[in-house]
Write a structure and sequence with these properties.
The chain contains nine helices and eight strands. By secondary structure, it is α+β, with helices and mostly antiparallel strands. A three-stranded antiparallel β-sheet has the order 3-2-5, with helices on one face. A three-stranded antiparallel β-sheet has the order 6-7-8. The protein has a two-stranded antiparallel sheet with strand order 1-4. Strand 2 (65-71) and strand 3 (74-79) form a beta hairpin. 12% of the residues are buried.
Length: 378
């Protein structure tokens, strides 16, 4: 049976306010559904791309890096610094840092060939390869070393320890520690370390041995040697000093003796000069006396010489006549020639001659009547 009050209750439950009008449409209701779907798709793709980059990459390779491109687990090539991108199935880009990785290795217990213990500290810079062929041939085997600095440092530390033991073990203590021997040791470690790193495609530069330590026993022995050497040097210096002092004292004594000798020599020289002056005075007096004697003798000698000169001059003056006389006596024909020459020279152009036969007297008649007569046959 229906409750008679039910209709009344229903009527009473109805609100007395009027119903609201139609609501204002929202912004999302105005965007087309296809555009919303597109945006949602892009968001989903971006999320998936960030979750896994197995299908693409778009990255920058820095100056100290090279990029290894990998597709489906196989190396495709090596990219140099720049922008790298690719799309495909399971593609990836691995960056290898090629800047220097510094290593520092200490070994306090190294034995030289002469059984001495020393310690070394070696530093070096290690570089990963940039060349494509080296990277490709070594990447799969040494991937951890190429990508992880700690792995590289561990491997190079082991190589350095081995190189240090080899080089120190081949040298004597003095050759490894003293003077230029340290340069030889560094060069040896450099060569050994480079030889070990080269098969891995690594390059080693700037190898240095900044610190060498020795055991307390060796240090004590070296100190004793140094002290002994210093003592020896001091003894040598003392001996040299004493020698130099003795030489100086001797020089002083020799100087004093030379002064005394010079004084005596000067006195003797002055006496000699005085005696020489006296001697010169006596010689001068004697010379005067002798000169007077010489002058007398010289005068006599001069007279004799003058007489000899006069005699010789006389001989010179008559030498021609004597020579002619000797010539006339030896060569009578020469005398006749001289007579003929004399007669010829006596004839003048104005002279007149009359030739007669032998025994006939010429008669010459002059103006005064004189008849000259002479013997034509002497």
């Amino acid at each position: 049976m229906k409750n008679p009050n039910a209709q009344n209750q229903k009527t009473n439950s109805t609100p007395s306010t009027p119903p609201p009008s139609n609501p204002r449409p929202s912004f999302l209701s105005l965007i087309p559904g296809w555009f919303v779907g597109l945006i949602l798709g892009v968001i989903v793709i971006a999320v998936l791309a960030n979750v896994s980059k197995s299908f693409w990459y778009f990255e920058v390779i820095e100056n100290d890096q090279v990029g290894v491109t990998i597709e489906a687990g196989e190396i495709q090539g090596v990219l140099q610094p720049g922008i790298a991108y690719d799309f495909g199935l399971f593609v990836d880009l691995v960056k290898i840092t090629t800047s220097a990785v510094a290593i520092t290795v200490d070994d306090p217990e190294l034995i030289t060939i002469d059984k001495q213990r020393i310690g070394l500290e070696v530093t070096a810079d290690v570089f990963r390869p940039r060349e494509a062929d080296i990277v490709i041939s070594n990447y799969s085997r040494y991937r951890n070393i190429y990508l992880n600095d700690e792995s590289l440092q561990q491997r190079m530390t082991a190589f350095t320890l081995q190189a240090m033991k080899v080089c120190v073990g081949d040298k004597k203590f003095d050759e490894a520690v003293i003077g230029s021997g340290r340069d030889d040791l560094r060069a040896c470690i450099d060569d050994e370390l480079s030889g070990l790193a080269e098969p891995l495609g690594l390059e080693v530069r700037n190898v240095a041995v900044p610190q060498i330590t020795i055991s307390p026993e060796v240090q004590a022995g070296l100190d004793a040697i140094v002290q002994s050497r210093l003592a020896t040097e001091k003894a040598k210096q003392d001996a040299e000093k004493a020698k130099q002092e003795a030489i100086a004292q001797q020089a002083v004594e020799e100087g004093r003796i030379r002064v005394d000798q010079a004084k005596l020599q000067e006195e003797a020289r002055q006496q000699a000069i005085l005696q020489d002056i006296k001697r010169q005075q006596l010689e001068a007096e004697l010379a005067v006396i002798e000169q007077e004697k010489v002058n007398t003798e010289a005068q006599l000698e001069l007279t004799n010489l003058q007489q000899q000169v006069a005699d010789e001059q006389a001989l010179v003056d008559i030498a021609k006549e004597l020579a002619l006389a000797a010539l006339y006596e030896k060569y009578p024909s020469f005398v006749a020639l001289q007579i003929a020459l004399a007669n010829a020279a006596a004839i003048k152009p104005t002279d007149k001659f009359i030739f007669t036969q032998e025994g006939v007297f010429p008669n010459l008649i002059f103006s005064n009547g004189t008849l000259p007569t002479f013997n034509v046959n002497p």
